[in-house]
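Record type: monomer structure entry
Structure origin: computed from sequence
Chain ID: A
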Amino acid sequence: MKLALTALSTALLAVSAHAETCTDFKTCSQLMFELKGQRYVWDAKMEEHKFTATPNVEMSKENAELIFTALLDQAGLARLPVGDGKTYRVERNVNLKEISAPVFDASAEHAPVIPMDTWDWVTMRYKLKSADEANVIESMYRLHLPREARMQADENAGLLLVTGTIPMVKQMYVTISAADKPVSSTAKKHYQEWRTGMLKENHAAPAPALRGS
């Protein structure tokens, strides 16, 4: 009974803390439980990661997720929801698959509606105006992504899958939607000629832009 009351008192008093006290994953996960009631599961090796933050940065119930997910990203980690809204598993971001992260649909007319304001990892499933442009846009912009993030083209479905942190995905939506233009029949022909030649020569020559009439 005494232990239960002590734990309850600790949780009630932990309405805020300082980010500098969040020095390692185990300490941070305990703080997230006290502030947000969230639970985390992880590989024991992840406890080796150390976090660094500017002194006197207050970590409250309102900003805890933003700060915690930014610290995870800094360490090359990401959290994924398990299903009940309060439990997450933590993985190395390089191991994440596109469909493992929450998926949000988008198009030129509709930005992805991502409710979280954090550094969580998500996937944007962008529907292009022209399926022929999928590989071209991927080849033009995938090098703009951080090393761990990824972009995958599905030409058959006319989709681009972009996986990374929420701020990065939102920025890539602006870039992709600006490049997403209808493709003319002439441009399609030029692209097909380039693609056929590239496959024959087996090297990645720069793709022609699918623009013009």
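Annotation 1: The chain has two domains: 2-95, 103-201.
Annotation 2: Confidence is low (pLDDT under 50) at residues 1-14.
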